[in-house]
Amino acid sequence: MTDFLNAVWSGSGFGSLYGLVALGLVVIFKSTGILNFSGGALMAVGGVVAAGLGAQGFWVAAGIAVVAVAGVGAVANLTVMRPLLGRGLFPGVMVTIGLASVIEGTSGLLFGRQPRFLPDPIGVPTFDLPFGTSMSSTLAVALGLSAAATVLLAIAFNRTSVGLQLRAAAVRPEVASMFGANPGRIFTYAWAVAGGLAALAGALLASLTVADISIATFALRAFAAMIVGGVDSLGGAFLGGILVGVTEMLAGTYLGDDFRLPSTMVVLMVFLMVRPQGLFGTPEVVRP
Amino acid sequence: MTQSIAPPHLADPAQPRAGVRRTGLAVLAVAIVVALPLVVSPYWTTVATNAVLAFAIAAPLNLLTGNAGQFSLGNAAFLVVGAYTGAFVTFTFDMELPIAMLVAAAAGALVGFIVGLPSLRLRGAYLLMSTLAAHYILVFAALKFQTSQFGAAGAIFPPLRVAGVDLSGDRSMYFVIAAFAALIGLIITNIMRSGHGRAIEAVKARDVAAAACGISVARTKLWVWSLSSAMIAAAGVLQAYYLGSASVEFYTLNLAITYVAMILVGGLGSLGGSLLGACFVTLVPVVVNHLSEAYGGGGVLAHPHELQTVIYGLIIIAFVLLKPDGLIGFVRSAARRLRNGG
Amino acid sequence: MAGDVVEQQFLSVRDLDVAYASGAHALRGVSIEVGAGERVGIVGANGAGKTTVARAVTGLSAVFRATVRQGRISLAGKDTTRWPAWRVLAAGVVTIPEGRGVISNMTVEDNLRLVLAAIPRRRRPAVTEAYTMYPVLGERRRAMAGLLSGGEQQMLAVARALLVRPRLIVADELSLGLAPRIVTEILDGLAARAANEGTAVLLIEQAVVMSLRFVDRAYVLDQGTVVAQGTSDELRQAGDTTARYLGVADLSRAEELL
Predict the structure, then answer these.
(1) Is the pLDDT of residue B208 over 70?
(2) Which of A131, B151, C24, C61 counts the most CB atoms within 10 A of its CB?
(3) Model ipTM?
(4) How high is the pLDDT of residue A88?
(5) What is the mean pLDDT of residues A98-116?
(6) Residue C22 vs residues B2, C65, C66, C95: alpha-carbon distances, Å
(7) Distance between A94 CA and the closest CA of chain C, angstroms
């Protein structure tokens, strides 16, 4: 029971990081149809930037990293993503893969590859929970921040002009254009949001473990989170992340650590075959 | 959409002459390949071996992704399936390389068939994700197989001997791999010229249209998945012999992406493109390293690995945005200019 | 007919050639003019290129993979040929698109707020203006737009267009699939508002008779070219040459078609 609950707690914490990256993937995929393979690189560089500013404490460092990587996302859209609109899956995936490579190499040139650390967001190391279990305070903060980010994003999508235009562009791009949405502008917001969310995940991960530009593959679970939640659902991305994270930690606890990543990929495969629209997605959003 | 269903030779009245020209180019290519190691230094022979091997892997992938339109990130997993099947057959039954490669191809075909099954239900991003999941699941299975069969370090391959002849030297290894690559090229050429080629292109053009043409889309899809995976798995055995060992750490997602980058850079759906792309992407790190050494490694050149990573990314981006038909596009327009000029 | 008064035209389309990426050549040398506050029609059979004109004028060619090969579109004297849709909208041209362009899985109110999002906040009208015009929209403001009847959806499309206080409304196949009574009701509402605010209307219609009743003058489009033009009366009186392009036997006696 203790093992099980501990796995669930830490799984939800780590899963909420996948959820953060997945939120960014969903925002981009939903509005532009581009499947973003650079989420992991954006996350990793966010962690590296935050850890480089570790002396400022977690919150300042994470804040600066979020803003900086949001900028990277915006610039990426303005330069290389915008010409890709409407060109289909393969070009989008390849350019985001290329972008991930550029980000990784640039980060290596600018900041080196030595692992860096970031202080914890709050002073308490762990929270005690029922049945003699406990949860790392950083994971609890991660869970709280991801939930907050999901709610804020959902509000932004419903209340703001750009949010409304992004929602319209997701389902009827031509209608969104007819009524004043400027794709270049609104998709820049989408990319900035994706960058910022990924950087937040990266900063949290840096304080949990270590900041290292080569940990980009960590974020591959975000694809599983995105599919499990449903590619057009923000809340789904968050809950999907937690489901994937808990699965991973349970597999790690009961089967062995080397089962962690494969177990998330099994979840991904099962959902693709059984329920490709995910838990909360609408079935007809398939973009071939 | 539907015009690409028409077989290319019907659309091109200049086909006979083009055929002669193509044969001429093929002869020239073979001549270059054979002469190369006799002319250049051992270092460049190694580079050439890498490029030719890369072609043998990229070409079947191009058949699947470029011609049949099935975007897959599963090719590194097929390589490991091939390498470990080959190792198992070689070590357990003491078989020669050709037998090991045939068995590996059979295993590759089977695994390719299974990985291809989702393509009957899923398309686009969803299908791509299923190949991503398949990559990790297969590599994990390979890890378990590795641990139980070969130990933690992976499979160590002996120097290559076929029928008692030692082929492990740089040059002989090069010729073995080049011969295999030529075989792959021949197989793919013949497939694309046959009715199968038309069926493959039809799968890409549009599933519905292919069905309307009386071609069983499902059967063609699974057939291409199996065939391309079989070829990649067979290449995996050769690659493992060439590298001297096979260990799961080598078969990363990034390795899979490298071959996709090759067919993108060379030209999707073109055999010549696979060759050009394989050479180009193989040469990038070589050139960067040379520059780094030649210019004393100052500035960004002090970190050739990081520089390679950046340049590799920029190349991928540049080709998608600026030259989506790849290097073969340059060759085609040059050929067109020559034809029109003379 | 209006060639020498270019300066007074709000919309001026000159020798427009448009082709689609599929290879289809949709428009050849089309010239159309709409004066400020004027009501102009474009009529023609299916596939004549009417919708292509609407897309070109509203900056949507690229969105539908069409390219302006030649010619010039200008609004109030400014060259807008290559402007994207959002700039054309900001210049005061709004569309009531073919098929209504209502986003069915967004609420009625969000559909209206979508167009408001494009207007700078200080000039942004209240969404309730639309409900004053069509109270039924106010009653169903929280309903998904896809659940509205065809007529209500068209009201939503009209109200959405009027919210931006446009100088020109391009209405494409507004009558399609609607009962004549509802079309008349919607057009009367549109006409009243347009007259009130000096809004010009470019009405693109297959339903010739209804269209000619609403507009001051019209262009007849066939296979991507303007084959006739004139006032509504002139076109109604025209012989069977014009009528043939419209797929109607005799315009003066074709009222029953509506």
Answers:
(1) no
(2) C61
(3) 0.91
(4) 83
(5) 90
(6) 11, 8, 9, 24
(7) 23
